[in-house]
Amino acid sequence: MKTALRSIAITALLTLFASSAFAAPPRSTSSAPRSTGGGGGLGDGIALKFDFVGTNLGANTPVFFGYASDQFVFLVGLNFNYTIPDDDDADNTMGLTLEPTLRYYLESPAVAKLSPFLEGELTLGTGSDEVPTVFGLGGGVGVAYYFNPNFGLSGMGTLRFANTEDVGSTIGIGGKASVEFRF
Question: pLDDT class for 88, splitting at 50, 70, 90?
Answer without folding.
Answer: low
